[in-house]
Structure formats: C-alpha cells, structure tokens
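USER:
Working in pairs, take the chain set out below, taking as long as you need, and write a paragraph about the fold.
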Amino acid sequence: MGLALLVGACGDDDDKTCDPVAATGCDEGLACEVVTGGTPACYAPVIVRGDVFDLTDNAGIGGARVVALDVNGSPQSSVAVTVDGNYDLRIPSERDADGAPVALTLTLRVDAAGFQAFPSGIRQPIPIDTSGAVKGDDGGYMIETAQTQVGLLPLAAGGGTASLAGNVELAPSRNGVLVVAESGTTGHSAIADRDGAYQIFNLPDGAYTVRAYSLEANYTPGMITLAGTQAGELDLALDAATTSTVSGTVNLVEGATPTSVILVVASTFDPLLARGETPPGLRAPNPGTAPNIDGPFSIAGVPAGRYVVLAGFENDGSVRDQSGTGGTSLVYIDVVGGQDLPIVDGFKVTKAIPIVSPGATMAESVTSPPVLTWVKDSSAKDYHVQVFDALGTIVMDHHTNDGAIVAVPFSGPLTPGMYYQFRVTSYDDASPTPFALANTEDLRGVFFSP
C-alpha cells in the first residue's frame, strides 16, 4: 500500500509521469526516480546523513560542502552545506519493482574553508554501498554509517582565505565537471554538483585562470583576481571545440600485472606525493573496470588542457618503474581541442613491493608509533623509507643500507588526527650510485592516529 501511495503522488492523472532529469512531477518531499524495467515514479527519497568534523578536536565544521559521486567521479547529488557539521544529502536512486533503491557505490567529496579537501593527498575516498540503506516509516531510505562521517584536517595558518563560486553549464551527457582555479602553475579545485554549482575555498591572493574539465566537453576559461577574504563569482560556459583522444602504450616488466592509466590536471599535481586531480572519466580502462592495460591504451573525450599521465597509480600490484631508463619519467602532455595526441614513448610499469603493515589494504588506525614493514625485494641492497603527513611534509627519511632489513620503527611525530603514508623504494646498491628497482604502491601504507 505504501508503494501505491508514493507512486500515486506523481499526480491525479494516471497517465502523467514525472521527469527524473528535470526533477518535476512529484509532490513536495518526494523524488522522481527511474524504475528498473518500468516508468519513472515518485518515492520518498534516499538520504545520506552524516557529519563533517575537525580531525584535531572532533568539533563540527559549519559551511562544509558535501557532494556524492559515483564510480565515474560524476556527481549524484546537489550540494549539501553543513550546519554545525551535520548534513543530509538527497541521492537520486534507481528503484526496483518494489521501490527499493538499486545498489549503488558512492564516494563523498567534502570541501571547507580553512581545511584540506577530502579526498586529497594521501587520503583516499571510502566507498559507500547504498544497498545498506535502511527503510524508514515514511517509505524513504537512510544511509548513516561510519563512511558518512568525514574528518577534515586544518590547513596551516597563513594560507589563502579567498573563495570562488559559480555555475558550470552542463553538457547533455551530464558527466562530472572538475573546476580548477590556476594561478601560475598551481591549481585549486572543486567538483561541480549535479546542478553545476561549484565553490573553491582557501585561495591565496592572485590572478586566476579558471578552467572546467569534463569528459567529452570543452569549456571557455574565465579570469578573475581575488584578494583577502573576497568571495568571487564566476560562471563557465561550454565551448564548441571538440575533445581529443590520448593514446599510448604500457610496457609491463619484472612481473608487473595489468594496470590502468589516468590523466591528472598538471596544475593540481604534487610531484612529492605523486598526487593530483583527475577529471571524472579520464581513465583507461573506463572507470569501474578492473585494471587491464598490458599494452596499447586510449582515452577518448579528453578536454583541452595540460595533464600528467600516470600509469600504475591504482592498487593493482604494479607501479611506475623508477629505474631512470626509457619510459620511466613522468610524462606531461598538452591537449589541444580537436587534436588527437599519441604518446610516442611507452610507460614502463614494474611489480610493486608489497606492504605488510600498517595500511596494507586501507588506512589503519595506530595508537603508538608503528613498525613499518614490507616484503623483501630479492635484488635489493638498500631500502629508502620515507613517511609523509597528509599535508605533504616529509616527517621521516631513512635508508636501511641493508637489503635484508624489511622493517623499521616509525621515528616521526604521531599527531592525533593526522594521516601518514610510508613509502619504500628498493635499490640494487647502496653506493656509489644507487639504482632504483621498485617501490611500494602509491595508495597503500596509510596510517593515522585517532
């Protein structure tokens, strides 16, 4: 009876259907949803509920922007702005014949003034499975789990305090849009929500070129100058220029397994952390497909811009070869609208050094300085161990000078609320000229102090 009541709420005319794209045709408080094998109907919504808090003191953060993204990185919600740290995020969800939401995997993007965005740096998104939604008395579904509670790290004092907000024109595909405000070679980013609204926080004084990046679409850049606590406004429109295809070849060596390739906007790339922002969908194979690249690859629909091409970045058992021979350097490319770009040099990818602990599979909580442990590289004569905090500072830098040592105690600070990542690079000889063999994976080895 509850389902019939909700469907009937689309209107008194039995022939009338609601429109899930335009979000019209339903009574207030109901959402027009796609129905598997049927026509769209009105239902009580699916809500993601959580809070955003300061990792250093657990205080709620007001004014944080929360957007839900799908496996492609495209927004599945309008933005929710926290009040005292709490938020409710309405998620459009396909329904089965009984009105239950079809399982969907989401992640959250969270931005706030004075805080590092999540995810960013060494902190990666945590998937939220909507199949765990709990049905309420009103027929709606609620998702409230540990994954919907998001802690943010305060930025260092003296950083930028300006902000920039606006709307991007959405292409018919409604693919996700990454907006980047660039000053010089440094970019600050945000993901536009389902309606095209964006806001970028923590901008230093300066003149900015603002670009939007979206699969299968180009945008006309905008210009703005910001200072102090100014809240700038700038909308971005679609450009008629066609997109491009980027292609190349991955060479697997030393037991490497099939991998993936992503494009990172160059102005957001941190060479120290080897991290940056990837526009939604700019991946081979397509997002949601397991890494399977073991030779030629291509990424179609690439918008104009400057990118870093990363192979072996995901947790797939493979990493970029850093031996210094051909095909091992970071590759920067400039994509021009409508011009395909074949990358001549291949990308050499090798087998990663497996991590034992901490952070072998996901970020791991530690209450005391951990012992950093990895699997022996049979050819190693030395291991270089570095630990970074979430703000990109090296807090430990150590050489074992002994290939038999595969564990060292963490000697850096263990600050409550801070996240850390350890990385290990093996070398064939400690002197006089070390030769890099392999390293641990880019996204593993993360630990934090609660």
Q: What stands out?
A: The mean pLDDT is 91. Helices lie at 2-8. The two ends are 47 Å apart (CA to CA). The chain is about 0% helix and 40% strand.
